[in-house]
Amino acid sequence: MPRLSFVVAGRNDDYDGNFDDRLTIALSKNITSLPDAEFIFVEWNPIRNKTLVCRKLQRLFGDRIKYIVVHPKYHPLYCTIDDFLEYPAKNVGIRNATGDFVACINSDILISPEVVKYLNGPLKPKVAYRAVRVDINLEYLNVKFPVPKDQILEENFGVTNACGDFLMVDRATWYEYTGYCEAFPEQRLHKDSLMMYLFVDVGKMPVEVLGRITHWRHPSSWSNNQNRGKVGNVNWRFTKTGFRRNGPNWGLVLAKTFDFGGIRWLM
Question: Mind listing the pLDDT tens digit for each residue in 17-26?
């Protein structure tokens, strides 16, 4: 069994025009940095009759990645304002992860050597491991660490700020908390913050910062466009919802599965 699992989610819509490039570069570098870790890619609500991202990745990475596709029929149960919702997708990844510690990261996140060093050291259960997200220029694809200052746009960190980009806890704790909130289908924004609220404010878990990660600031990044639609209420008071746990089917664990060509379909 691997010690570390990394969950990434996406869709075959080439989000912001170069999603596939950013995803491929990030996966390649992260897999090279963490050769013993398990990597899981969950493709949520794929566009019909269009090549799956999973197929493209499979041609590049073979069985180095665990590929999962979630049938479009499930999407309306979780989101009513957009065609993609990363948090139920990440829950599917968590449910299929086998590592002792499971990190949910965004598709265009590069893990720095300082974080890799921390990950290869001792880790503790019941700790919320986070990272400082460094936004970099979209054109800076050949990323080198340390990142040159002229390529850095902003550093983001707070208990909840940019917490959707990197969050790791032990697998048992993910299961105890039933992953990210799958309720409120009219809301996309702040589901990651709600998870941190449950871990830290409700569960009193300590937070440890591993170091820096990078994120390409693409046109639809929240940092670029905080007034864009399809995110729900930007002032959503997630601490007042009373939400604590998902139902027993969280992460679509009861969905029928069909394995075809090295890809697991949730049907």
Answer: 788 999 999 9
CATH architecture of 4-266: Alpha-Beta Complex (3.90)
pLDDT of residue 228: 54
232: left (phi over 0), alpha (psi -120 to 50) or beta: left
What are the residue ranges in the chain where pLDDT is below 50? 226-227
For the CA atoms of 117, 119, 125, 130, what is the dihedral angle to 10 degrees?
90
Query: What are the residue boundaries of the structural domains of the chain, listed by start?
Result: 4-266
pTM: 0.95
CA distances in angstroms from 148 to 90, 125, 142, 145, 152, listed in the order given = 31, 34, 12, 8, 7
Mean pLDDT over each residue of the chain, to the nearest integer? 93
* Helix H or strand E segment including 31: helix 19-33
Cβ neighbours of 242 (radius 10 Å): 5
